[in-house]
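Need a sequence for this fold. Nothing fancy.
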């Protein structure tokens, strides 16, 4: 097992970081979040065409580059650090990985290319009867800009044209202004069968690792911004970074970042080399990174003092993004429960044999 990045992965990280700094810097993020779609379509087109991030972990048969989740996590860390807005997570990661896992070869190539925006709609209330889907799903990523919905219902996965008259959707007011969500209702919309839901869990686990990587990137940026600030902010005639309490607090955040980095790297390696163990590795990464990233964001706001609470400072944007993603694709409690169930099953099996 080698968790250190390769030379190619380091070059990928540099390319993505340069793209984020030049194409979607924070002033551009703020401008985009005030527009109707919530992102810059031209920047999204460049992200897909120039960098090909959605293609990284998608099979060549599905129109992807055929690399691995490890490469995807490298890119997602930089995108998380820059709070890149748009349909990257919802369409380019979650929907794309699910479509690839269930064997779609029709919609996926255009999703990977960024010309089609797909959104995963998953809820126990969804049913499909006679080729028509019924039910309501709340908190759907990119619901308002989606061209197609990937619907998981029963034991199958379907695609539904978002413009179908039997599909209604409305935008939600959410905590994170850089990532849009909406509620979607299906009243007999035509559903095209993609395949069995057997691969759905694997696709979602791969997406969970990518999301944890995005959280890690934002977490690292929170630490970097805070360290830079405490080096220049003065109180009682001293830089506040010289205070023992501040140094100790940031040392704790740094430790958490390092542990989170190891958890994400291991989960990505497992996705690429030992997929049979991915479920637990993904849950470990998400269960750890989510709460720790939120702690890093909270500490950032705290150490910035009054300025950390202002709209003009970027601290609140990181805080809101990290808090929102903490519960996406399962909360820490959800994943801890999954890990516990796995361990208890193992103990029971050991007793039986």
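Here you go.
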């Amino acid at each position: 097992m080698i968790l250190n990045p390769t030379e190619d992965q380091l070059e990928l990280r540099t390319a993505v970081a340069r793209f984020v700094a030049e194409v979607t810097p924070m002033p551009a993020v703020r401008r985009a979040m005030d527009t109707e779609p919530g992102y810059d379509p031209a920047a999204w087109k460049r992200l897909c065409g120039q960098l090909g991030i959605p293609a990284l972990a998608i099979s060549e048969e599905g129109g992807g580059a055929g690399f691995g989740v490890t490469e995807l996590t490298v890119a997602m860390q930089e995108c998380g650090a820059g709070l890149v807005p748009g349909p990257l997570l919802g369409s380019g990661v979650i929907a794309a990985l699910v479509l690839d896992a269930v064997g779609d070869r029709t919609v996926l190539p255009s999703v990977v290319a960024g010309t089609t925006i797909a959104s995963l709609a998953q809820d126990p209330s969804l049913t499909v009867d006679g080729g028509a889907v019924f039910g309501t799903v709340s908190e759907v990523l990119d619901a308002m800009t989606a061209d197609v919905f990937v619907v998981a219902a029963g034991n199958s996965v379907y695609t539904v044209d978002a413009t179908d008259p039997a599909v209604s959707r409305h935008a939600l007011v959410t905590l994170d202004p850089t990532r849009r969500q909406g509620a979607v209702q299906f009243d007999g919309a035509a559903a095209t069968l993609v395949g069995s839901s057997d691969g759905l869990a694997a696709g979602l686990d791969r997406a969970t690792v990518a999301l944890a990587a995005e959280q890690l990137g934002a977490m690292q940026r929170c630490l970097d911004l805070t360290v830079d600030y405490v080096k220049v902010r003065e109180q009682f005639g001293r830089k506040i970074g010289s205070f023992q309490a501040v140094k100790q607090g940031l040392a704790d955040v740094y430790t958490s970042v390092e542990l989170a980095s190891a958890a994400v790297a291991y989960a990505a390696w497992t996705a690429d080399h030992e997929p049979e163990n991915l479920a637990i590795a993904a849950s470990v990464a998400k269960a750890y990174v989510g709460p720790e990233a939120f702690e890093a964001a909270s500490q950032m706001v705290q150490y910035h003092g009054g300025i950390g609470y202002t709209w003009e400072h970027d601290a609140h944007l990181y805080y809101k993004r990290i808090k929102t993603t903490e519960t996406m694709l399962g909360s820490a409690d959800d994943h801890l429960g999954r890990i516990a169930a796995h361990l208890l099953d193992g103990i029971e099996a050991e007793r039986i044999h």
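For context: Residues 68 and 308 are 37 Å apart (CA to CA).
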